[in-house]
Specification:
Blueprint lengths: L2 E9 L2 E9 L4 E5 L6 H9 L6 E6 L2 E5 L4 E2 L7 E4 L11 H11 L4 H14 L15 H13 L5 E5 L7 H16 L4 E5 L3 H7 L2 E6 L2 E6 L1 H6 L4 H7 L2 E8 L2 E3 L5 E3 L6 E7 L5 E3 L10 E13 L2 E7 L4 E6 H7 L6 E6 L4 E5 L1
Parallel strand pairs: 3-9, 3-10, 7-8, 8-9
Antiparallel strand pairs: 1-2, 1-4, 4-5, 5-6, 10-11, 12-13, 12-15, 13-14, 15-21, 16-20, 17-18, 17-20, 18-19
Helix pairs in contact: 2-3, 2-4, 4-5
C-alpha cells in the first residue's frame, strides 16, 4: 500500500518526468531550484494537472493513466492539499473552512461541523473556530488549512511550501507543531520546500528535483554527504566537480584536472569543501599538494571572521579563508590567484 508516481507531463518548456514512491507514514520532502517542477508534481497528484504519459496510483487504485483512459477528478481523490498561501475562503469562518471539503462530498452539516470542531481542537484552535481568515495569524491560518486538508481523511497529504508565508519568528514554532501533526498522520505525505531546515525537521527522506527529474533521493544525511547536482552543492555550500576519472585523476568537460585519492574509474563527482582550499598569490614550488589551479578572484563575501572567495577559471571554485588571510593576501576581484587542495581532503564518488 503506497503512493506511486510515474509522471510524464510537458509543461511549456519543462518536460517533467518523475518516478517516485512514498510509503504509508512516510514524509517525503521535495526540494529543487525554482522552475524545477516541484509544485507541478503536487498538482499532478492532486488531479489539477493530467498526465501526458505514465501512471499514478494510491493503494493500488489508479488515479491517472492516459493509456487506460483513467482520470479521477480532484474531488474524488483521497488527497488533501495545503497550498502555499493556504487559500482559505475569506467569507467563511475557520470552522466552515475546515468543514467545506466534507460538505462538498455530501456529508451533513451537523456531522461536518462536529468533525471540523474536533480537528480545530486538535490544532489548538477551538477558541478561533468562529474567526474569519483576516482575524487569524499566519501560524493559525496554516493550521486551519492543514485541518481542512485532513478533514476528509485523505490517504495522501500534500503541502506546498507550508511555512513560506510565515516570518522567521513564527516559523520555528509552527514547524514543530506541523511535525507533531504529521507524526499522527498514517498516510503518505509530500512536502515541497525550498528550505533544507524544513526538510530536515519535517521529512523522513528527500527527493531533489532538477529540470523536471528526480536527480537524487535519500535521507538528508545521504544527500548532503554525496551531492549529485549543483543545486544540492549550493544548498550545503560546497564545491561539486563532475567529470571522468582515470588513473586517480578526474578531468572535467573544460579540461581541468582534480587529483582524487582512491577514486574508481569512470564518470564521477569530486566534492571539495571551501575550507579545504588554500589561496596563494603564486605557485608554491616546494609544496607537496597535488592539486593546484590558477584563476582570478571573483566575488568576495564576508561572513563574520570568515570570508568566501570565488575563484574564476577552468575550474570555478569557492574557497573559505579567514578575514586575516584576506587582508594579508590583499585580494581584490580580478587579481590572479592560485587555489590548491590536498587530494586526501577531496571526497570522490561515482556519478
Amino acid at each position: 500500500m503506497t503512493l506511486r508516481i510515474d509522471a510524464g507531463v510537458q509543461l511549456g518548456p519543462l518536460a517533467l518526468a518523475v518516478e517516485v514512491g512514498v510509503q504509508p507514514g512516510e514524509v517525503l520532502a521535495v526540494l529543487g531550484p525554482n522552475g524545477a517542477g516541484k509544485s507541478s508534481l503536487l498538482r499532478i497528484v492532486a488531479g489539477l494537472v493530467a498526465l501526458d504519459r505514465g501512471r499514478l496510483t494510491v493503494d493500488d487504485d489508479v488515479l491517472d493513466d492516459p493509456v487506460g483512459n483513467v482520470f479521477v477528478p480532484p474531488d474524488r481523490r483521497p488527497v488533501g492539499m495545503v497550498f502555499q498561501d493556504y487559500l482559505l475562503f475569506t467569507n467563511l469562518t475557520a470552522l466552515e473552512n475546515v468543514a467545506f471539503g466534507l460538505r462538498a462530498r455530501g456529508v451533513g452539516r451537523t456531522t461536518a461541523r462536529l468533525r471540523a470542531a474536533e480537528l480545530l481542537d486538535r490544532m489548538g484552535l477551538s477558541s478561533h473556530a468562529m474567526a474569519r481568515p483576516s482575524g487569524l495569524s499566519g501560524g493559525q491560518a496554516q493550521r486551519v488549512a492543514l485541518a481542512r486538508a485532513l478533514a476528509t481523511s485523505p490517504r495522501v497529504l500534500l503541502l506546498d511550501e507550508p511555512l513560506a508565508a510565515l516570518d522567521a519568528t513564527t516559523r520555528t514554532g509552527v514547524r514543530r507543531d506541523l511535525r507533531h501533526h504529521l507524526n499522527d498522520f498514517e498516510g503518505m505525505t509530500i512536502v515541497v520546500t525550498h528550505d533544507p531546515v524544513d526538510a530536515y525537521a519535517l521529512a523522513d527522506s528527500v527527493a531533489i528535483v532538477d529540470h523536471g527529474e528526480v536527480v537524487q533521493r535519500g535521507t538528508i544525511a545521504d544527500v548532503t554527504a554525496h551531492p549529485r547536482s549543483q543545486y544540492v552543492a549550493d544548498l550545503i555550500g560546497t564545491n561539486l566537480v563532475a567529470g571522468d576519472v582515470a588513473n586517480g585523476v578526474l578531468v572535467t568537460s573544460s579540461g581541468a584536472q582534480v587529483v582524487v585519492a582512491g577514486a574508481a574509474p569512470g564518470p564521477g563527482f569530486a566534492m571539495i569543501r571551501p575550507q579545504a582550499i588554500a589561496l596563494q598569490r603564486h605557485v608554491a614550488t616546494d609544496s607537496s599538494v597535488r592539486n593546484s589551479w590558477t584563476g582570478t578572484i571573483g566575488p568576495i563575501d564576508l561572513l563574520g571572521d570568515r570570508v568566501r572567495v570565488g575563484v574564476l577559471g577552468a575550474l570555478p571554485l569557492t574557497a573559505e579563508i579567514t578575514a586575516a588571510s584576506l587582508a594579508e593576501l590583499d585580494l581584490q576581484p580580478g587579481d590572479a590567484i592560485v587555489a590548491s587542495a590536498k587530494a586526501t581532503d577531496i571526497t570522490a564518488y561515482p556519478a
